[in-house]
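ok so i was messing around last nite and threw this chain in just to see what happens. nothing serious, just curious
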Amino acid sequence: MADVMLELSAWEDLANIPADPPRMRPLCSKCCRPVQVCWCAALPPEPLNPAGRIVLLQHPAEEKRSLRTAPMLSVGLAPGKCLIYKGKRFPNTRHDAELEAILADKRSLLLYPSASSVPIEQIDPAGGPYNLILLDGTWPQAKAIYHCSTALHGMRQVKLVSSGTSSYIIRTQPTEGCLSTLETAIQALSALERDDRYREQLLQPLHVLCQYQLANGAVTHQSKEFLIRHNQYPKLIGRRLNRLLKHADNFKDDPSDGTERKNST
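result:
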């Protein structure tokens, strides 16, 4: 009898669920975030218009993150100056011919640390319109995309020699030099365009995002590297993180071998 009563109670609970979905908070038409937490007011007065294009090869898991920085890039630049393709391997059957042409273009640059990468500051911007390819995802995801996408292997590869400290202070970074997608693109654009406006103006939405989160319960995050070195990291270190920390140590010992180090978003 008790089981029957529990079953009837469960059906009554289901019957009381409203048929219509709950009312969602109004969204900004530009950034698609709730209006209350919209950062569009911090965007450049006019979208910045670089000579080339940013092309993001985005891991599917990245789209599910609520606090992504790639949208700041896509709305902060002029229309057509930030292209986003999603997948785990590029190109694939879902992508149009435009991406294949971009990857085959001799003016395209892949921002990726490798033995053949050159500092992006050495690239001559007078070479005509360029395509700057970024892998958007965590470092393991970016490595997986690179290894699965043979079209990327023959591209000219560039790196950021000095990446600085991330302003994305509400997210834990693997190492001290890791940057978000937005920050990585800004550093690269500032170097290629020889224009500090990209660094000065495109970072403002990220500052607004972090300030809002901190005002509503978020806390400033130190990098995993910092926590480990100060015996504050609460988890065991996996092989991937251990390799990344060793790579960071090598970078600090030999700054002439700088590479772009990036985390998620």
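not much to say yet. Residues 239-253 form the longest helix (15 residues).
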